[in-house]
Amino acid sequence: MTATIRSTLALPVRLADGFETQGLVVAFDGLADGREHVAVVLGEPGDVPLVRVHSECLTGDVLGSQRCDCGPQLHEAVRRISHCGGYVLYLRQEGRGIGLYNKLDAYTLQDAGLDTYEANLALGFAPDQRDYGVAAQMLLALGVDTIALLTNNPDKVAQLERAGVRVESRVPTGVHRSSANHRYLDAKAWNGHLLDGEGA
């Protein structure tokens, strides 16, 4: 299935720490899952742009939750990509694809001792249900078929390459560890994330 660009609009961006930049938001038609994902163009993308594929996290991105590292990773991506040029793909895949309410249920199970992956399994879901095929559709609609991917998650690399986007390099994100999210980050490392900054 081929996606097309539906609309574009300018977006002034200001992060909580005061960092400001100009972005361009791109919406799409024809995405395979029918959801409303967007791309944010930052800086001047080159032939091999830096790309962050970021899954929505209301609690982390909007409310500043310390339970995860989503908000800090998104802010890091906006700053880094603004400087070198590329794209933030914001995917509506809350809670590793299980949705907001189920994610909140998973938080309750995590408070009882399960890790983030075990909680998804206890609720009857796969440990990670995200599908990055739509990210490949978005990139191809933008005319991008080769990227540098800002991620610690090898599954993103594998899925994008299977969907027709060449990942020339994986660029590690920072490890935003705190006293509130250390178990969450440990679980990510145990499940294959490469926390390069910590020697994982």
Automatic annotation (TrEMBL):
It catalyses: GTP + 4 H2O = 2,5-diamino-6-hydroxy-4-(5-phosphoribosylamino)-pyrimidine + formate + 2 phosphate + 3 H(+). The keyword Metal-binding applies. This is GTP cyclohydrolase II. One of its GO terms (biological process) is riboflavin biosynthetic process. Residues 25-172 form the GTP cyclohydrolase II domain. It comes from Nocardioides eburneiflavus. GO terms for molecular function: GTP binding; GTP cyclohydrolase II activity; metal ion binding. Signal peptide: none annotated. Pathway: Cofactor biosynthesis; riboflavin biosynthesis; 5-amino-6-(D-ribitylamino)uracil from GTP: step 1/4. In the N-terminal section; belongs to the DHBP synthase family. Its cofactor is Zn(2+). The keyword Nucleotide-binding applies. SUPFAM superfamilies: RibA-like. Its EC number is 3.5.4.25.
